[in-house]
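Side project, low priority. Logging it here so it doesn't get lost.
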Amino acid sequence: MNTKRNKNTDSPHFREFFLDQIKDVYWAEKHLSSGLKKMRKAATSPKLAAAFEKHIEETAGQIERLKRVFELLGKTPQAKKCEAMEG
């Protein structure tokens, strides 16, 4: 394992940028989860509903992983509206 530190990733600016991006992704995953549940409910076939259910489960896993990232950074999970996902 390479333990050599990169001075660019040690900077407070990089850390703030990274945290900002994690907040963005966290919001997007939570927003996606909500939308997928609506699509599952509106699905007209059992196969389609099952596909949405599978994606909901995968998205829940992503949300849990992001919560872990926040924890590792010593931060409380916080979402920041993702303009790209909102569109």
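Brief comment: The mean pLDDT is 89.
Revisit when time allows.
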